[in-house]
């Protein structure tokens, strides 16, 4: 139903443990319980006069909320309203664990829970906590120096938890974003971001939050002053190149892209080049090799630590307390949050944390490029002629801070983005990321439980690269993509990716991504009259597998692919049998698929395939296309009238209405074709 359009990527909701329910159950060694007995006990302890008891109760809730069956019980007992006041508890440890519990609740509970948290006024104590942390970081009253550093670290830890709660809630609730705007949260989180050189973890959390709240938020854009933009600029252009800083710079680059509407025309070229230079450097890194190197580094670190421990045991002899002896010793020190709340990873897993940071940075970079390609393009008469700069370092000379935050007309990005994408070899690097993950790295990760989740992350990068490839093929000129020969090579590459996996139909994300890329590629190749590289039999194999997918996007893609292929074959001689096969396939999809969106796409494909050409005319008569469409026409109208508004968006309904109108016209055209060939 028209040319495919890539969906923009929204920031994924943060989940500190991935599959919240499963991992929490595994951590506790128990299955999730149906009753809310533990919840009642823990919630009661939140009111205990002892700060240690309150802290332990918060930590227990932080684990409990990761079990989805426990969430209804917590909601019934008003857990949010009970935890909220503890964000301002006199004890810093209680504040941190309370924020951690709310962080996990907002991450694991989803949109409904986050919206309910806003309804129950969690934003009031949360904003107050963020303001107090900001004030605390500015305070110089703490002494001696050792105590000052300890308190400052605690405040930064609390701020990090609070920012993650804020990010999760703003991701899910427009009301939370509105409160963010009105309460001046931007100034607070930017102050946290400015500490990126001493606390990169906090800065990364802020960058995630900013990327969320700056998207489609014109009200907030007005609040970005020159100093605010300077903070972003400093973070994005940090000279530090550790993997965590690479992630930080990538996230900030995404935020700056969201601010494109307030950037003056004189800075546009430099800013676009600076953003794409960072994304290019991120994608340049070989994730598979990095996984292998970091896993080897971890192995060596653990071996060295074990050797050192063995040496100490030999020196100390029996004076060293064994683990089983430790169990009999009462625990007198305070229970710290990290003993209970399941954060992304323990701080000791340095290599794994850094590897995840790189993989996340690469995924984010690909998502930003897709969003850049999917920006609303201004009309031709609004485009400005801007000179492109290949030197992104000149961004410093023509600083973001100099724009003064004034609102200007939307960026006219076509020329600038296209040029920068080509200059930094972005298409080539994205092409490389579409390959399957390094098999050796996958094997290494599969043998280690803590590294095993990285296999999924590497696969996500491949899928994001395929979606990114779709965007680039749709956006860039053929010359920017390397010419016709490069497109044919790309088609062969995608074909090899697809058919090297015998069970490709089972991998829904991969199938949707690669079918989207193939659809865009075939559209471009057909529109430029470039010879097709994939045979009709290959495409039919893909389509027969994909049409049974539960994913509507996959089914729409494979139907469109057949429509494009058939419309090309209709202009050639000797294609009658293939056109008949394609026609029967599309006709069956149009009349039997439960989704009107897929059925409409199949009808649209039929219109394209059988719109012109002698072979197409003969094929349409032989498969009795006219009688089938006449019989289906009232059924389609009835389903559209009955299901339309209940199941489909206004945009989808508009397209389906056009299909209905085109169906009437196509039936009339087929009547003339049949009359011509039968007389």
TrEMBL record:
<dbReference type="GO" id="GO:0042273">
    <property type="term" value="P:ribosomal large subunit biogenesis"/>
</dbReference>
<dbReference type="Pfam" id="PF25567">
    <property type="entry name" value="TPR_SYO1"/>
</dbReference>
<comment type="function">
    <text>Plays a role in ribosome biogenesis and in nuclear import of the 60S ribosomal protein L5/large ribosomal subunit protein uL18 (RPL5). Required for proper erythrocyte maturation.</text>
</comment>
<dbReference type="InterPro" id="IPR052616">
    <property type="entry name" value="SYO1-like"/>
</dbReference>
<feature type="compositionally biased region" description="Basic residues">
    <location>
        <begin position="1"/>
        <end position="11"/>
    </location>
</feature>
<dbReference type="InterPro" id="IPR011989">
    <property type="entry name" value="ARM-like"/>
</dbReference>
<dbReference type="Pfam" id="PF13513">
    <property type="entry name" value="HEAT_EZ"/>
</dbReference>
<dbReference type="InterPro" id="IPR016024">
    <property type="entry name" value="ARM-type_fold"/>
</dbReference>
<dbReference type="GO" id="GO:0043249">
    <property type="term" value="P:erythrocyte maturation"/>
</dbReference>
<keyword id="KW-0677">Repeat</keyword>
<feature type="region of interest" description="Disordered">
    <location>
        <begin position="1"/>
        <end position="39"/>
    </location>
</feature>
<keyword id="KW-0690">Ribosome biogenesis</keyword>
<comment type="subunit">
    <text>Component of a hexameric 5S RNP precursor complex, composed of 5S RNA, RRS1, RPF2/BXDC1, RPL5, RPL11 and HEATR3; this complex acts as a precursor for ribosome assembly.</text>
</comment>
<feature type="domain" description="SYO1-like TPR repeats">
    <location>
        <begin position="416"/>
        <end position="672"/>
    </location>
</feature>
<protein>
    <recommendedName>
        <fullName>HEAT repeat-containing protein 3</fullName>
    </recommendedName>
</protein>
<dbReference type="GO" id="GO:0006606">
    <property type="term" value="P:protein import into nucleus"/>
</dbReference>
<keyword id="KW-0265">Erythrocyte maturation</keyword>
<comment type="similarity">
    <text>Belongs to the nuclear import and ribosome assembly adapter family.</text>
</comment>
<dbReference type="InterPro" id="IPR057990">
    <property type="entry name" value="TPR_SYO1"/>
</dbReference>
<dbReference type="GO" id="GO:0051082">
    <property type="term" value="F:unfolded protein binding"/>
</dbReference>
<keyword id="KW-0597">Phosphoprotein</keyword>
């Amino acid at each position: 139903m028209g040319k495919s359009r890539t969906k923009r990527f929204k920031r994924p909701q943060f989940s500190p443990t991935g599959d919240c329910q499963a991992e929490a159950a595994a951590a506790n060694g128990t299955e999730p319980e149906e009753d809310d007995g533990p919840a009642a006990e823990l919630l009661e302890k939140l009111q205990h006069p002892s700060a240690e008891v309150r802290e332990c109760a918060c930590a227990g809730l932080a684990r409990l909320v990761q079990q989805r069956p426990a969430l209804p019980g917590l909601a019934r007992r008003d857990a949010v309203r009970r935890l909220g006041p503890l964000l301002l508890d006199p004890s810093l440890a209680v504040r941190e664990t309370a924020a951690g519990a709310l962080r996990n609740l907002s991450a694991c509970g989803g949109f409904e829970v986050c919206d309910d948290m806003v309804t129950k006024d969690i934003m009031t104590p949360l904003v107050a906590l963020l303001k107090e942390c900001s004030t605390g970081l500015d305070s110089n009253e703490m002494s001696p120096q050792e105590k000052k550093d300890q308190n400052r670290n605690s405040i930064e830890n609390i701020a990090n938890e609070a920012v993650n709660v804020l990010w999760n809630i703003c991701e899910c609730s427009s009301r939370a974003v509105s409160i963010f705007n009105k309460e001046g949260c931007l100034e607070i989180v930017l102050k946290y971001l400015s500490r990126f050189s001493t606390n990169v973890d906090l800065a990364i959390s802020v960058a995630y939050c900013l990327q969320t709240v700056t998207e489609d938020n014109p009200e907030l854009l007005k609040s970005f002053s020159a100093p605010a933009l300077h903070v972003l600029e400093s973070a994005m252009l940090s000279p530090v190149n550790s993997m965590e800083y690479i992630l930080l710079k990538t996230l900030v680059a995404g935020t700056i892209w969201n601010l494109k509407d307030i950037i003056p025309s004189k800075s546009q070229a430099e800013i676009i080049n600076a953003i794409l230079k960072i994304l290019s450097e991120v994608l340049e890194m070989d994730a598979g090799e990095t996984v292998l190197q970091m896993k080897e580094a971890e192995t060596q670190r653990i071996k060295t630590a074990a050797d050192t421990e063995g040496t100490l045991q030999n020196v100390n002899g029996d004076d060293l307390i064994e683990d089983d002896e430790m169990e009999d010793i009462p625990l007198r020190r305070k229970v710290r949050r990290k003993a209970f709340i399941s954060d992304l990873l323990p701080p000791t897993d340095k290599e794994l944390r850094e590897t995840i940071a790189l993989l996340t940075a690469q995924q984010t970079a690909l998502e930003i490029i897709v969003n850049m390609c999917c920006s609303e393009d201004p009309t031709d008469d609004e485009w400005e002629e801007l000179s492109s700069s290949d030197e992104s370092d000149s961004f410093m000379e023509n600083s973001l801070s100099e724009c003064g935050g004034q609102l200007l007309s939307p960026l006219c990005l076509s020329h600038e983005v296209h040029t920068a994408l080509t200059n930094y070899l972005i298409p080539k690097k994205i092409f490389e990321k579409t390959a399957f993950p390094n098999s050796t790295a996958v094997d290494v990760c599969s043998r280690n439980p803590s590294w095993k989740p990285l296999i999924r992350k590497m696969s996500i990068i491949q899928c994001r690269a395929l979606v990114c490839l779709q965007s680039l093929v749709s956006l860039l000129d053929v010359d920017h993509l390397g010419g016709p020969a490069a497109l044919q090579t790309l088609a062969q590459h995608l074909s090899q990716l697809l058919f090297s996996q015998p069970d490709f139909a089972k991998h829904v994300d991969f199938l949707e991504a690669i079918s989207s890329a193939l659809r865009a590629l075939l559209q471009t190749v057909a529109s430029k009259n470039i010879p097709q590289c994939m045979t009709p039999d290959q495409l039919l194999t893909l389509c027969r597998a994909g049409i049974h997918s539960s994913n509507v996007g996959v089914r729409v893609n494979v139907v469109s692919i057949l429509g494009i292929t058939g419309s090309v074959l209709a202009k050639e001689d000797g294609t009658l049998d293939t056109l008949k096969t394609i026609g029967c396939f599309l006709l069956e999809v149009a009349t039997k698929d439960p989704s009107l969106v897929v059925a409409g796409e199949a009808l649209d494909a039929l219109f394209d395939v059988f719109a012109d050409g002698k072979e197409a005319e003969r094929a349409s008569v032989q498969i009795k296309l006219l009688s089938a469409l006449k019989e289906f026409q009232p059924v389609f109208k009835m389903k559209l009238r009955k299901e339309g508004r209940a199941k489909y968006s206004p945009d989808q309904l508009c397209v389906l209405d056009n299909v209905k109108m085109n169906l009437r016209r196509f039936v009339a055209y087929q009547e003339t074709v049949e009359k011509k060939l039968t007389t």
